Amino acid sequence: MALLSVNIDHVATVREARRTDEPDPVWAAVQAELGGADGITFHLREDRRHINDRDARVLKETCGVRLNMEMAATDEVVDIACGLKPEQCTLVPERREELTTEGGLDVLGHRDRLGDAVARLKDSGILVSAFIEPSRDQIEASKDAGFDAVELWTGGFAHARCADDVACSLSLLQSGVETGLRLGLVVHGGHGLTYRNVSRVASLPGFSEFNIGHSIVSRAVLVGMRESVGQMKSILERCAPRENG
Ligand code: PXP
Q1: Quick check: 149 and 117 in contact, CB under 8 A?
Q2: Closest residue by Cα to residue 214 from 13, 39, 16, 21
Q3: What's the pLDDT at 244?
Q4: Pocket test for ligand 1, best of 3, 4, 6, 7 (most atoms within 8 A of CB)
Q5: Nearest to 65 by CA among 91, 29, 11, 90
Q6: Whole-angstrom distance, CA of residue 166 vs CA of residue 175
Q7: What's the pTM value of the predicted model, to 2 decimals?
Q8: Which atom of ligand 1 lies nearest, measured to the CA of 216?
Q9: Is the CB of 129 under 6 A from ligand 1?
Q10: Which of 120, 123, 132, 175 lies 20 to 30 Å from 241, alpha-carbon distance?
């Protein structure tokens, strides 16, 4: 069964709406862990709009499950990651004007620059993943650049509005998973997954982990983080493909 890594950025988004000290994303991470999360994901953005350096440090000190740090491949953040040593770093595109990460990294177009960041992170003992669209070219380029894993962007599926587009995006994801596994990459998925849509993607064989944030944090406001994570875990368990156990 695919693991669930809970993205807690939006707990910090609420905190930053008032530039105060609550709610604390570190407390949310503890609750997510108690609810059954297999990992905690956070994005240390260059503009620090939600998670900040203190959060990253305290998460590293306190988190009992795998820590996945999303980040742009800039020198400043790579330096921080090499010092922090989370279990995994996921390189993502970052634009200041975006609401959240939009689409995947262009590994094909920036193979050399990304390859340098990957090498530095791997030298620090960190598993490195590329957040990319599920295209064969980008998956092959990620392998060439030295990534250990790819996180396939599931936004295309999440945003699909008609049955044909849904079927087409699921088939792209399935062939992306197969390409990744054939190249020896670990394959994750994430973006736009919700309680309503996750079962279609989680039923596809081959995914190791899903990174889910907004939907879980949204439900946590109503039912609490422990409960909201437990509910998402139950769905993943129910629809896990037999191949993955
Ligand atoms: N994976 C990556 C690489 C992301 O950047 C994000 C958003 O921060 C997510 C997964 C989670 O997306 P969502 O908040 O839509 O579940």
Answers
A1: no
A2: 13
A3: 46
A4: 7
A5: 29
A6: 14
A7: 0.96
A8: 16
A9: no
A10: 132
